[in-house]
Amino acid sequence: MSSGTALQTFSLTNSIVEISPQDQIYKFDAAENQRINREAPWSKDPHYFKLCRISAVALIKMVIHARSGVPHEIMGLMQGKVVGDTIVIMDSFALPVQGTETRVNAAAEANEYMVEYIQGSEKAGRLENAIGWYHSHPGYGCWLSGIDVNTQMNNQKFQDPFIAVVIDPNRTISAGKVDIGAFRTYPENYTPPNASSSEYQSIPLSKIEDFGVHANQYYQVDVEIFKSTLDNELLALLWNKYWVNTLSQSPLISNRAYAVSQLSDLQQKLVKATSTVGSTRPIIPTYEKEGAQKKEKEDKKKEENQLAKSVIDSTKIAVEAQHGLISQVIKDVIFSMRPRGEGSASASVSEVTDMAIG
C-alpha cells in the first residue's frame, strides 16, 4: 500500500470532508470576530456550541504529538475562530510540558512558549487566536477527568470561547480511526437536563469513579474533520512522518502494555459482574400500571449493563488483536516475499490472510 493510498484510506476512515479553498471558513474576518466576542452568545446558553470542526492538518499534528508521548500524556493548544454555533480549529501546536501517565500540567516555560508562538504566528499571517487546548488519554478513552474539568472551567471563565479536545493514541493505533472527543464544561452551579444516552465507550475500572463523578459537569460536542485541495501538499508532508511510524511499527508490540492493561481491566470487570449477577434476584412481574412495568424494564437493563458492557469490551479487545495480527502478517508477507511469480505471490498473501482471520 502506497503512502497516497494510505492517506486516502485515513481520510475515508475518519470521514474527512473536502471543501473549496474559497470557502469562508478559511477567511478570518476581524470585524466579525470582534462582534461575536463582544456579544458572547455562549455566555447565555450553556449548550450554545453544537459542533467542533477541525482541519485535517491540525488533526494529524495532534495525533503525531499524542503518539510520540505514549505512555505519558501530552498537551497542546489549538488556534481557530467561532462561526455561528461552531468552533473551527485551523491549526494546533504542541506545548513543551512534562506529563505523567495520568496527568499533564503546563509550567511557566510552556506559558512563555505559548505567548511567543502566538505572537510569531500573527507575524506569519495566522490571525486566529488560541481557542482550545488538547491533551491525550493513552488507553483510557476520550472524556474529562476532574483535573481536566477544572482546567477547562478556568479557561472558559477567563478566555472563552474555549474548547477541550481529548485524543486516545493507543485506541487510535488499535482501531485505525482517530479516537477523539471535544468537550465544553457547564457554568458553576448549573444543573444540566437529563443527559441523553451516548455511545458506549470502554472506561478502565480504575477510572470509572473519576469518570462518573464529573460526567454531568460537561457535555460532548460533535466533531467534524475538513480539508481543502490547498491542504494536500502540507498534509502529505505531515502524513509521510505519520505513515512511516505506522508502517514501521506493529500495534501488537507498540500497544503491548495497553493490551495487557485491557485484559487486566476486563478480568476485574468480569469479577465485579459475576458478583452482581450472583446476588441479583429475579424481578417479579406486576401489572398494576404501565409506568411501573417500564420502570422494571429499565431497572433490569441497568442490572444487565455491567455484564453486557464486559462482553462489548472483550469483543473489542479480540477484534483489535486480530486486526494487529492481520496487519503484521500482511506486512511480513509483502516485505519478506521472494520473487516467485505473480500467481504464487497473490496466493501466498491470500492464504496467510485467511489463516490470520481464522
From TrEMBL:
One Gene Ontology CC term in the entry: COP9 signalosome
Tree of life domain: Eukaryota
Entry keyword Metal-binding: yes
Composition bias, Basic and acidic residues: 287-306
Gene Ontology process terms (BP): protein deneddylation; proteolysis
Residues covered by the MPN domain: 52-189
Region feature Disordered, mapped onto this chain: 285-306
Alphabetized UniProt keyword annotations: Hydrolase, Metal-binding, Metalloprotease, Protease, Signalosome, Zinc
Keyword Hydrolase (UniProt): yes
SMART domains: JAB_MPN
A single MF term (Gene Ontology): metal ion binding
InterPro entries the UniProt entry points to: CSN5_C, JAMM/MPN+_dom, JAMM_MPN+_peptidase_M67A, MPN
Quaternary assembly: Component of the COP9 signalosome (CSN) complex.
Main function: Catalytic Component of the COP9 signalosome (CSN) complex that acts as an regulator of the ubiquitin (Ubl) conjugation pathway by mediating the deneddylation of the cullin subunit of SCF-type E3 ubiquitin-protein ligase complexes.
Family, per entry: Belongs to the peptidase M67A family. CSN5 subfamily.
Name this polypeptide is given: COP9 signalosome complex subunit 5
Native species: Ephemerocybe angulata
